[in-house]
Design a protein that fits this description.
alpha+beta; Helix Hairpins; D-amino Acid Aminotransferase, Chain A, domain 1; OB fold (Dihydrolipoamide Acetyltransferase, E2P); 6 domains; five-stranded mixed β-sheet; 27 helices
Length: 718
């Protein structure tokens, strides 16, 4: 065994060196010598060996870039040397004044300055000790920032270890950015998922670094460009321009273009030259930074209260143009989010003709008071997405009315006519109808979710691409997929293909085959019938043999008839007795309704279920399931048997994190044994099942005297 481990250690180190080499060629030199597939094969070999020999995993291994579990919050860390912001100016005259000012402060001296790109990203500090990455932090308030080391480790262009010759301590300053192509791709994916779009690459980079889960950050196309140093030990450099070659020599992704200037004319020439080439960089630039080159001269120039006297940031003006907003249309995303889009008189801005612009959401429209007919100012946000910046109020037509999204579309989805609801999570309106034609991806994901048919390998981007490539038009089309089709599925673009692969495809098809045999309750929930949640699906499945039985349920028709005929005592009593005999109802215990009954599901649910299966969508699903040979297993039980189940009549509420099961798993166990799970604690609650970090439900249960149990006690009950 020791020999096996020794051989594994040797192979692991070889693989790590190869992967680091290819990372360097790809990210630093933009000259890869192997294909993505070959790279993935090396990476997979390393993962397999480290899984087999976990003791050989080291923090600086390339596999640890998606490092660790999600954080609960970012730790605050102090900067070794404060990270100061620079004075900004949009005026070339101010740049001249800046140089004249430092010449007055250092008379009769030559004052060379460095002109470099002002990267429009998120300022960060990286600390290397003896060549190893020890800490990464955001700027924060300049003195204290967020410790984002785990997130920075996910960025492949950031070396874990510097090359030979690294100083004892090297703190480098730079910007995290999202490359242009990656930004466009990310927004394209968010658009398809119905998520709010990022306004520009900087926002996208900032939002990515704020993620508490490094696995999410690892999926974002982030890069770093380093342009300076903070605290150092063992670095013998006297001028700023010598830093760039040093950083590159150590393997750090440093600024690739800079200019040394010794006069105002040379400074302005460099600024103009940079403006001509900056659009070719992978990252966004919004200006030029001018810094005194000599560290000795910087020290004598000193600082103001806010910023150094020896540097200034010149920002290029963003091109803005005026045009008329002809209309506001509402687009429905694949997850049902309604997005307002401005229809414009075509206008040329930043080199391209724009006729549409995003308005983000209704709150943004109200904040800027944007109205149809207005003359608006347009710019390309981050020079990528056209956006409406402001309204020219002086040119507003007299009859222009404030925009109300719900009224504009008559409170109906413009795609299917279904109801819409304000979704607080996304500050947006959402189409409620999961069967809206625009929401194929959302329905596929809903059907495949863990609580439904548990086909997780076809969620997210896979579901999106299945729909986009025309392999799935309706969720049940999943059951006609073949391994060969899935294996060839391109999850990337035509220019940069990324196939799903045979191994993943086999795993997905196995999950799809398992789903065929799942019980009726899971299928009823997975079909996304309005008003049918997991608990209701379980209740319905207990009293019906098959989906056909549910679709033509006499019990559900009786529920509707009973509520319609409650005033006709004789007819109502006859229906009530029938429902009670079937176990689908019991006599009301309340004083108010002592002559009535309480049914397993109410009339609203009964109507929703019958309407769904009577609709064209429902009929088509029933027909397709028969054609596919899918017959979900019955969970029907008699009234007597229901009463005999160990948790019959008991109501549970769940809170906190359980040690060895998810809330969904606990809910399934409770419902399988006749119990009910509700979302809020009341006097009628029998048990509160509490795990770690319980919420306010715990206090409410104590206040009401509800019995509180942990997972161990719950397992004894089972």
């Amino acid at each position: 065994m020791a020999n096996d481990e020794a051989q594994a250690a040797k192979r692991i180190e070889q693989l790590r060196e190869k992967i680091r080499k290819h990372d360097r060629l790809y990210h630093e030199e933009a000259a890869p010598i192997i294909s993505d597939r070959e790279y993935d094969r090396l990476y997979k070999q390393l993962i397999d060996l480290e899984t087999q020999f976990p003791d050989l995993v080291t923090p600086d291994s390339p596999t640890q870039r998606v490092g660790g579990k999600p954080l609960k919050a970012f730790e605050q860390v102090s900067h070794l040397i404060p990270m100061l912001s620079l004075d900004n100016t949009y005026s070339e005259e101010e740049v001249k004044n800046f140089y004249a000012r430092i010449q007055r402060l250092l008379p009769d001296e030559k004052i060379p300055v460095v002109v470099e790109p002002k990267v429009d990203g998120v300022a960060v500090s990286l600390i290397y000790q003896n060549g190893k990455l020890r800490q990464a932090a955001t700027r924060g308030d300049g003195n204290v920032g967020d410790n984002i080391t785990q997130n920075i480790r996910t960025i492949r262009s950031v070396p874990e270890r510097l090359r030979d010759g690294a100083p004892k301590l090297l703190e480098v300053r730079g910007e995290v950015y999202m490359d242009r192509k990656g930004f466009e791709k990310l927004n394209e994916e968010r658009k398809k998922q119905g998520l709010p779009l990022f306004a520009n690459p900087r926002n996208a980079a900032a939002g990515s670094l704020k993620q508490l889960d490094p696995a999410i950050v690892a999926k974002r196309p982030l890069g770093v460009v380093v342009y300076g140093t903070g605290a150092t030990e063992g670095v013998d450099i006297e001028v700023h321009s010598e830093i760039f070659p040093l950083l590159m020599k150590l393997g750090l992704p440093a600024t690739e273009r800079w200019w040394v200037a010794e006069s105002v004319e040379e400074i302005l020439d460099a600024i103009h030259e940079l403006d001509g080439i900056r659009h070719n960089f992978a990252y966004q630039t919004d200006g030029a930074v001018v810094k005194v080159n000599s560290f000795a001269q910087r020290e004598r120039l000193g600082f103001t209260a806010k910023s150094p006297r020896w540097a200034i940031a010149y920002k290029y003006a963003t091109e803005r143009v005026e045009t008329r907003l002809k209309d506001i249309i509402i687009q429905v995303g694949r997850t049902g989010i309604l997005t307002p889009v401005a229809v414009l008189e075509p206008v040329l801005v930043s080199g391209s003709t724009v006729s549409r612009a995003t308005l983000h959401n209704e709150d943004e429209i109200k904040r800027k008071d944007i109205r149809v007919g207005d003359t608006v100012v347009i710019e390309k946000a981050g020079e990528v997405i056209p956006a409406v910046v402001e309204v020219v109020k002086s040119k507003r037509p007299r009859d222009a009315k404030p925009f109300d999204l719900a009224r504009h579309i008559h409170s109906k989805c413009p795609m299917c006519g279904g109801p819409i609801r304000r979704d607080p999570e996304f500050v947006a309106w959402r189409c409620e109808n999961l069967h809206c034609p625009a929401q194929t991806t959302r329905r596929v994901e809903f059907l495949a979710a863990r609580g439904a048919l548990d086909i997780e390998s076809v969620g997210g981007i896979v579901a999106d691409k299945l729909v986009e490539r025309g392999l799935v038009r309706e969720p049940v089309d999943l059951f006609e997929l073949k391994v060969e089709q899935l294996a060839k599925l391109n999850l990337g673009t035509d220019e940069a293909p990324r196939v799903f692969g045979e191994k993943n495809a086999t795993k997905a098809i196995n999950a799809i085959e398992r789903a065929r045999t799942l019980p009726l309750s899971r299928w009823l929930f997975a079909l996304a019938i309005r008003d049918v949640g997991k608990t209701t699906a379980t209740q319905l499945a207990r009293f019906h043999e098959s989906i056909d039985d549910v679709a033509h349920s006499q019990l559900l028709r009786d529920v509707l008839d009973y509520h319609e005929k409650r005033d006709q005592r004789e007819s109502a009593n006859e229906i009530a007795e029938r429902l009670i005999k079937a176990g689908f109802a019991k006599r009301s215990q309340s004083k108010v309704g002592k002559d009535g009954i309480v049914t397993e599901v109410g009339p609203v649910v009964a109507q929703s279920v019958l309407d769904f299966f009577n609709s064209a969508t429902g009929k088509k699903i029933l027909r397709r399931l028969k054609e596919l040979g899918i017959e979900p297993k019955s969970e029907k039980v008699s009234a007597k048997k229901t009463a005999e189940l160990p948790l019959a009549g008991k109501t549970f509420v769940l809170t906190g994190t359980l040690p060895s099961m998810t809330r969904d798993e606990a809910t399934e166990k409770i419902e399988a044994l006749g119990g009910h799970v509700t979302s809020s604690v009341s006097k009628k609650t029998d048990y509160l099942l509490a795990g770690a970090e319980p919420g306010s439900k715990f206090d409410k249960a104590k206040e009401l005297g509800v019995q509180i149990i942990d997972e161990a006690a719950f397992r004894k009950m089972l």
